[in-house]
Each structure stands twice: as C-alpha cells, then as structure tokens.
Write the structure tokens for this entry.
Amino acid sequence: MSAGPADLSPLIAATTRWLTRAYAAPGGPLGAELAAAQTRQAVTVAAWLRYPTDLDAALVLGLGPGGSARLDWLVGADCAAPDEAGDAWRTWVDEVVASWAACLLGDPALAGAAVTGALAAEHAGGLPLEFRRLTAPDDSDRRAAALLRHPDLVAPVAALHRDALLERLGPPAPPAAGDHARAA
Amino acid sequence: MAERAHGGGAADNDVVALLKRQHQQIKELFHEAETATGDRRREAFNRLVKLLAVHETAEEEVVHPAARRALEAGDRIVDERLREEREAKDVLSRLDDMDTDDPDFLPTLQALRDDVLAHADSEERLEFSRLQEKTSPRSLAMMAKAVRAAEAMAPTHPHPGVESATKNILLGPVASLVDRTRDAMRRTMGGKD
Ligand SMILES: [Fe+2]
Ligand SMILES: [Fe+2]
C-alpha cells in the first residue's frame, strides 16, 4: 500500500520545501538539488522520530500537520510569497518536524543519534537505511546548504521545539571511560 | 532461485524495476540535453540534474546499504559504485557552473553520459540482479516504497482539514493537539504510555 493513511511523504515533502525555500542558497540547479536532498533526509528523520508509529502518522495526517503560518511569520514575509507551485503545500508543513530538522542540520552529533532513533520507527520497516547526505555531507553538500546548516541562521526555527527533540532522544550515552572509573 | 519475471506494473512493487526504469529516463535525458540547443538545452540539463540527484540519493539511502549486507563482497561492490557516483557528481558540478553554449559543455556532458551509463550498467549487472535474487519480494516492495518516498514532490492540493488546522494555530500550537489526541488514544487503547 503506497498511499495508505500512514504515508508521511506529503508532510515530509512539504516541510522540506518550506526549509529549502526559507534558507535557499544562491547558485545553480545542482546546488538546489543537493540542498533539497540533505534537507529531505533531515525532515524524514525528524518526522519518523516525531510520529514513529503508523498510528501517530495516521493521526497527524488526519488532524492536519498544522501548516507553515507561524513559521512564515517567524522568518519574515519573503518566503511566504506565493511560489510557482501555488500555496496548497504550505498546509502540509509540520512546524515541529521543521524545527527538529533544523536542529539536525546544524548539529552532526545530534543528527547521528536521531538517525539511530528514526531507524527504530515503524516507517523504516527494518530496512538498513542510511542518511549520509545528512550525517556525512561532502564539500558540495555543505556549500549548497551553507545557510541551512548555519546554527545562528536557523536558530529561530530550531529553538521552537529543540527541547522536545532532546527529550525525545534522551540523554547521550555516558562515555566508556566513566564506566571504568566507576568500576575501579 | 529462478529469475522472476517482471510485468508492466512491476516497478510499483520492485525496487530494481523502479531504478532500472529511472536509468532509462536518465539515458533519454542525456540524449535530449545533447541534441537540444540554447534554452532548451539548459532546460533539459536542469531536468537531468534533478533526476540524477534524486536517483543517486535514493540509491545511496535505500539500495546500497541493503546490497552491502546481502551480497557476497557487498562492501567492495558498493564502495566501487559510491566512488563512481562521487566522480559523476564532481563532473556534474563543473557542468552546472558552465554556460551551456561554452565549447567545453557538450564534450564534458558526453563524457559524463558515458560514465553515468557505465555506472548504471554496473549497478544492474553486479548489484541489482544479485540483490533481487537474495531479497524477499516483500523487502523489494518496501525498498521501492522508500525510494518513491525519497523522490516525492510536495502536494499541490491543500490538506483537507486546512480550515480547522488554521483555527488550531489561532488557538495555540497545533502540535499540542496532536500530542493530546495521541495520549488520549493510547490511554483508551491501553497501549504504550
Ligand atoms: Fe547509482
Ligand atoms: Fe542508478
């Protein structure tokens, strides 16, 4: 079943579009595609963490992801301008998922932990998926997402729901050296 | 195991059929970009850039990790494919910076086409066919779904609940509504906390 009630891809695609438009890097079409690829991975990981089960996904798709209104207001009027694809997609934007994705793009260590958590979600289906454009970007990826990966620039969006993300991921694993110290 | 036959709608349920179809589309777009001129060449090249970017990203995300685990010498086979993909990305980046009327554009594009089609051929012969033999139809279908999700476009129709969602934003963050409903449902169903 590809377009079942638990298919998060409209939410993921719309939230990706919002982030890439709000933090578009200058440059040609390749840069735009490279930015979109890593953002889509960040948004996918964020969405699977936020709505890990089919029930969660059905719920947000039923109630509605909330739309981009507050995000548009937050980053200014520029990206609220109509685009060539119309404005309907904005109703599929999820503010929490956008905020979590912004946190992940700006923090590689957090992104690694988030991927581990996301792969435990029902949506991963047990597949050994890799999100290396997010966790191991090369130079061209970084150039294309210079604004999206700049912690200061995405701070207003990332700060909205960062606490909830940290809570969701739990405390970082204690360093192994600490275990030895306690054992000694 | 005998070779499975793939009919018309196979790409919906089989990641290998889906990716092979994209290889064909990539080949056609190269041809279009090479034969067109002026604005039409630029436009065809932009579509090629887009298709190559989503295709290689989806392979790297979904198929290469599975092949690494499922195939004998999977690491070697996948590392080779990843190296080819990196090299193609570098050439694509050079072309992206070039004017399509630049005398170097067409020869560079043709060289890239040869490399990308050779890469696609290696994937099909050395990686995909073996993965198909070693993977259950259910997993192949799940991988196809993951690839399609990775390539999904933003919806062009509004969410059906858009009016109430707007109201929710006025009342408070919609996020809390989802959380409250989720908690209530879990309590009702006696499921997770
Ligand atoms: Fe490839
Ligand atoms: Fe390929």
Remarks:
- Residues 1-5, 178-184 of chain A have pLDDT under 50 and may be disordered.
- Residues B 56, 59, 81, 85, 119, 123 surround fe (ii) ion (ligand 1) (CB under 6 Å).
- Chain A touches chain B through 52 residues (CB under 8 Å).
- Chain A has one domain: 9-170.
